[in-house]
Fold this protein.
Amino acid sequence: MPAAPRLAFADAYPSRPVRLLVGFTPAGGNDIIARLMGQWLTERLGQTFVIENRPGAGTNIAAELVINSPPDGYTLFVTNLSNAINATLYEKLNFDFMRDMLPVAGIAQAPAVLATNAGLPARTVTEFIAYAKVHPGRINMGSAGIGSTGHLAGELFKMMAGVDMIHVPYRGNAPALTDLIAGQIEVLFPSLGSSIAYVKAGKLRALAVTSARRSDALPDLPTVAETLPGYQAASFYGIGAPRNTSAGIVDVLNKAVNAGLADPKLKARLTDLGSVLLPGPPAAFGRLIADETEKWGKVIRFAGLKAQ
């Protein structure tokens, strides 16, 4: 009998609009994925999924807001690689992400792009490394913010290539991309989803993707690993909810997300952005978060990085 009210509540969910918080500014990879999935969930579940951008502190502001929200399924979070990174990057947080954010569903995993402004003479990864070594400390490397995927992808590149670049954090990929195209910074590691249109339009120069294998979206673009064996950096996107959110609500959301990943139209739109889809149960998404937290924790400690 006690289970009956919970099941009835889950069956009625959602009965009003749902907030889906993104920890970055609009037009970046997280925002693009959120809006595609939010539209699908709106159509699938019959209630509006409102995308709310709350940038700042490497997504910690948005994450903490969700964690402190009622566990009723009406305030959700676009979980991403920054959350795995922040567990080590920040010495003090008001929450424990692995403990306090419940994994609901994975959406996709996507590489970044090693991109330079068109005025830089380097046209390959090898040429860029050579250029960076001739100009130590004079290349501005933008990122979507401290602890973002692009930041850590760049730090890993610096470590493996033995080059010195100055990190310039922004409040999202969109303003960083604008400055890269304008020549205000020299290099950026934006998500493939947020930069692919600029690459195809020739507004910026893509030297390589950061995944272990070439992307189907840009098959002629080499990987960084073809020059630096072992290099790999890929973001992930998914949905999280406050701890103690009911299993019934998690199940509704997980099934709806997985249905979207199987839908030919949405699947095509995601793969066109260079994404590798992540269907599966909440536990599988939770394991991915744990594995990425361990991997990037080692890089952060090796490089001696700390949030400012």
Q: What stands out?
A: The chain has twelve helices and eleven strands. Residues 3-110+235-303 form a domain with the D-Maltodextrin-Binding Protein; domain 2 fold (CATH 3.40.190.150). Residues 1-8 have pLDDT under 50 and may be disordered. Residues 145 and 171 are 6 Å apart (CA to CA).
